[in-house]
């Protein structure tokens, strides 16, 4: 039974470490290549699930060990009074490590649930309209009263520049 408790705790620690590593790369302030927010949301959800499973493994491992302690205590107490002689036996009690294990497992469980809830805010919402970029008219076109629409004589070098002299290329921030 001690091997099962040890395995649960090791699985919990390993999943917690991998969940932490995935959560670090899922931060919004880190940009790796051309990663989109939907990929970050999936990574956050994955790390949240890893934290939930790690917390459950830690709580189960500590609880099984505590159950073994209680069972051992009652067995030793019952056997002590049956023979009529007081025997000196080693007894284990709940120590601080059990309480730290329960608290750590609970915090990992709560943190995983919060990360799973937070990943919904990272997914971009689907819009029902297509965004279109409009560029304001510059020095290229002039409107005059008279015979109708007339344009100024411009070169290709003047067309690519904006009013303040910089080149104007469309960017992803041009959408209104």
Keywords:
4 helices, two-stranded antiparallel sheet, 176 residues, mainly alpha
Largest beta sheet: strand ordering: 1-2
Number of separate helices: 4
Order of helices and strands: HHHEEH
Number of strands: 2
- Main β-sheet: number of strands, strand sense, barrel status? 2 strands, antiparallel
Distance between the termini: 64 Å
What characteristic shape results from the CA principal axes? Answer: rod-shaped
Radius of gyration: 33 Å
Which ranges are low-confidence, i.e. pLDDT below 50, for 5 or more consecutive residues?
Answer: none
User: Structural class of the secondary structure composition?
Assistant: mainly alpha
Strand content: under 5%
Describe it for me?
There is one protein chain. The chain has 176 residues and is mostly helical. It is 57% helix and 2% strand. The protein is built from 4 helices and 2 strands; from the N terminus they run αααββα. The chain has helices at residues 2-25, 37-82, 96-122, 156-159, and strands spanning 141-142, 150-151. A two-stranded antiparallel ribbon has the order 1-2. A hairpin with a 7-residue loop joins strand 1 and strand 2 (150-151). Helix 1 runs antiparallel to helix 2 and helix 2 packs antiparallel against helix 3. The protein is rod-shaped and about 95 Å long.
């Amino acid at each position: 039974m001690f091997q099962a408790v040890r395995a649960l705790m090791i699985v919990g620690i390993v999943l917690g470490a991998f969940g932490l590593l995935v959560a670090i790369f899922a931060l919004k302030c880190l940009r790796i290549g051309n990663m989109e927010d939907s990929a970050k949301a999936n990574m956050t959800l994955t790390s949240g699930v890893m934290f939930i499973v790690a917390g459950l493994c830690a709580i189960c491992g500590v609880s099984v060990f505590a159950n073994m302690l209680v069972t051992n205590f009652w067995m030793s107490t019952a056997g002590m009074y049956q023979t009529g002689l007081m025997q000196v036996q080693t007894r284990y009690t709940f120590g601080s490590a059990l309480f730290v294990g329960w608290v750590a497992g609970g915090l990992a469980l709560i943190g995983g649930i919060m990360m799973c809830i937070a990943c919904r805010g990272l997914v971009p919402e689907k819009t029902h309209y297509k965004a279109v970029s409009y560029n304001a008219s510059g020095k290229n076109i002039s409107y005059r009263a008279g015979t109708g629409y007339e344009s100024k004589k411009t070169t290709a070098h003047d067309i690519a520049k904006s009013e303040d002299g910089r080149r104007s290329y469309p960017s992803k921030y041009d959408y209104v």
